[in-house]
């Protein structure tokens, strides 16, 4: 397609703007290579030429307002298309529902064409250019994306960068012996090489898929398979892989995708003698990917999925030379972990310590996605050091307690959940379960105890108020807004029986009549509405973690142009007090809760915080 003068000019200006951000990391990764540079430029220009006018206009809008995704107006909703609405066309019937809930960012769980049979929930992709035929065609997807865009909702899809399905065309050609495609993956002829790597690697699915390599006697090679056998790790040291993926990213952006969730990015670079996670090269790659799409599809943002310990997590939003240049969004798995940790222990010291010690108050050109549950298990990313910093806590002991608690095995636990992947060697255990079941709603409903039900609902609304105000883009996981409980029948589905994460991937229940469900739904909507009315909560405003002298209270300060917002959360089922001077010391003069519209009682200069209370003082 011929480019207009103006479009050509925008491309050239954007190329200049991002040139250093793009080529500095690429040179470190692949060396200086003018031929590669000119191929990349041609590719970007070709995709830019094909970009629909409406999206070019969006590019311009977002270039003029680059902080669009940091706004307090942003609220995300994450779902499996089939479990929410059957197909993409079905989604069109539920746009009003999303709108009513206040959603402005919709994340479709993996929706590109997966391999047949078990596909790890769609994370084993055989064609990045096609929609999963069970959900519809690319045209259906484009229609939904456009409809949502016109209703003020941006669209996120998963892009798996670390691996392809072994049925992907590149892998098939590699298996057929094409050397060029074998170089797209990590392949070894000699088992000893794989054993050398294994010495320092960990296992992601130790029960289902032990080891990190798979031997294919058919073509006589070992292939790097970090996750499942059918997921072949891509070789990002090969610049051809970079070009292929950029092409795919831009193709998706041109179909109307606003945000790409870059899956399992921590694993993208391999180096002997390391655990092959979070290596510096990964950060170079992520910077280069972002700089490239910023030239040819500036409306697109990147969300990094790295579920790692705090020290390794923060760099995904860009630190040091990558500052403001890496992912726009990254999952705050630590906030999620510590919500559950404090909920079980009724104590906030470890949460306060971890979030205060390891996390910056603000990031440049990026923010966290805050969430309570997602489609994955909960891994207890609590380090030995952080545990040791708190009296009477040890990392291993606390991790064991949490795994037991959320499997419902600890005496007095309110939770119903399962153990996911028990690592016999390290003792590591993770948990599955829905928000509602882990927070006690399932057990409470079963017992018929009205007080227990009300308490479980309060735990959930406290969590939602936390992610809505902490700082970042809050993500609601489908069904949490109506308290869907564990789907135990998933264990009877042959394709899912081996993976109990399906217990927390239930189908949507559109009937949702019960009273607890309605309370959660109305409570969620209320929190979302209030969030959107408070400019303090824009992700561009810093989050300062406070140290209230109360062992069950977690608190932070958000400083906006409007003044301060003090968030206070009670992680226990007992009333808690805080000296009013604590709030005054942070600039709060009125003890009025912007969430409930009630004034917080202060007899004897004490703020009184109800069981599982969530309070936003402004
Ligand atoms: C990510 C996904 C997870 C999947 C893995 C492999 O961590 O969230 O569900 O199993 O990547 O693709």
What do you see in this structure?
This protein is α/β, with parallel strands linked by helices and 618 residues long. Among the domains are: 1-162 and 234-331, Alpha-Beta Barrel (TIM Barrel), CATH 3.20.20; 169-233, Oligo-1,6-glucosidase, Domain 2 (Oligo-1,6-glucosidase, domain 2), CATH 3.90.400; 543-617, Immunoglobulin-like. It is built from 22 helices and 23 strands. The strands form 7 sheets. An 8-stranded parallel beta barrel has the order 1-2-5-11-12-13-14-17, surrounded by 4 helices. The protein has a 4-stranded antiparallel beta sheet with strand order 18-19-20-23, with helices on one face. A 3-stranded antiparallel beta sheet has the order 7-9-8. Helix 2 packs parallel to helix 11 and helix 19 runs antiparallel to helix 20 (450-469). The chain is globular, with a radius of gyration of 24 Å. The model has no long low-confidence stretch (mean pLDDT 97). Bound molecules: alpha-D-glucopyranose. The site of alpha-D-glucopyranose has 10 residues, from loops.
């Amino acid at each position: 397609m011929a480019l207009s003068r103006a479009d050509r000019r925008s491309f050239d200006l954007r190329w200049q703007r991002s040139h250093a951000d793009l080529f500095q990391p690429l040179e470190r990764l692949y060396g200086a290579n003018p031929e590669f540079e000119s191929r990349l430029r041609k590719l970007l220009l070709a995709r830019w030429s094909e970009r629909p006018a409406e999206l070019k206009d969006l590019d311009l809008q977002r270039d003029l307002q680059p902080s669009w995704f940091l706004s307090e107006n942003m609220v995300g909703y994450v779902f499996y298309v089939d479990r929410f609405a059957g197909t993409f066309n079905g989604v069109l019937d539920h746009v009003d529902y999303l709108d009513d809930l206040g959603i402005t960012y919709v994340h479709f769980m993996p929706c590109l064409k997966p391999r047949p049979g078990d596909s790890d929930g769609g994370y084993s992709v055989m064609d990045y250019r096609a929609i999963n035929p069970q959900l519809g065609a690319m045209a259906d997807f484009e229609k939904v994306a456009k409809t949502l865009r016109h209703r003020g909702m941006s669209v996120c899809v998963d892009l798996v960068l670390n691996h392809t399905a072994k049925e992907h065309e590149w892998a098939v050609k590699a298996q057929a012996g094409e050397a060029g495609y074998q170089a797209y993956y990590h392949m070894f002829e000699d088992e000893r090489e794989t054993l050398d790597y294994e010495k320092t690697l960990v296992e992601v699915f130790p029960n289902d898929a032990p080891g990190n390599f798979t031997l294919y006697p058919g073509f006589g090679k070992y292939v790097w398979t970090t996750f499942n056998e059918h997921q072949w790790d891509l070789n990002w040291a090969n610049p051809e892989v970079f070009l292929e993926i950029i092409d795919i990213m831009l193709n998706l952006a041109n179909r109307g995708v606003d945000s790409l969730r870059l899956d399992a990015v921590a694993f993208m670079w391999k180096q002997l003698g390391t655990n092959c996670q979070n290596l510096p090269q990964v950060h170079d790659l992520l910077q280069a990917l972002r700089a490239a799409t910023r030239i040819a599809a500036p409306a697109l943002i990147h969300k990094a999925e790295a579920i790692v310990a705090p020290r390794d997590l923060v760099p995904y939003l860009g630190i040091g030379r990558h500052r403001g240049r890496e992912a726009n969004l990254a999952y705050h798995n630590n906030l999620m972990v510590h919500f559950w940790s404090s909920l079980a222990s009724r104590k906030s010291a470890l949460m306060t310590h971890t979030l205060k010690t390891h996390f910056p108050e603000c990031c440049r050109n990026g923010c966290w996605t805050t969430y309570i549950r997602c489609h994955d298990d909960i891994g207890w990313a609590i380090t030995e050091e952080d545990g040791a910093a708190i009296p009477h806590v040890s990392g291993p002991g606390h991790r064991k307690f949490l795994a037991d608690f959320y499997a419902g095995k600890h005496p007095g636990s309110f939770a119903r959940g399962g153990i996911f992947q028990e690592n016999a060697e390290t003792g590591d255990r993770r948990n599955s379960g829905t928000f509602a079941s882990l927070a006690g709603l399932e057990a409470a409903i079963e017992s018929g105890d009205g007080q227990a039900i009300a308490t479980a609902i309060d735990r959930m609304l406290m969590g939602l108020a936390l992610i809505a105000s902490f700082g970042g883009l809050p993500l609601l996981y489908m069904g949490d807004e109506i308290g869907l409980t564990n789907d135990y029948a998933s264990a009877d589905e042959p394709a899912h029986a081996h993976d109990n994460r399906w217990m927390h991937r239930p189908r949507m229940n559109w009937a949702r009549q019960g009273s607890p469900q309605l309370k959660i739904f109305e409570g969620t909507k209320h929190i979302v509405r209030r969030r959107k009315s408070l400019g303090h909560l824009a992700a561009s405003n810093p989050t300062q973690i406070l140290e209230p002298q109360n062992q069950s209270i977690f608190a932070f300060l958000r400083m906006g142009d409007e003044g301060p917002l003090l968030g206070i959360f009670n992680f226990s089922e007992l009333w808690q007090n805080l000296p009013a001077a604590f709030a005054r010391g942070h600039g709060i003069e009125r003890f009025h809760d912007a969430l409930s519209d009630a004034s917080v009682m202060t007899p004897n200069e004490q703020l009184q915080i109800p069981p599982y209370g969530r309070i936003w003082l402004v």
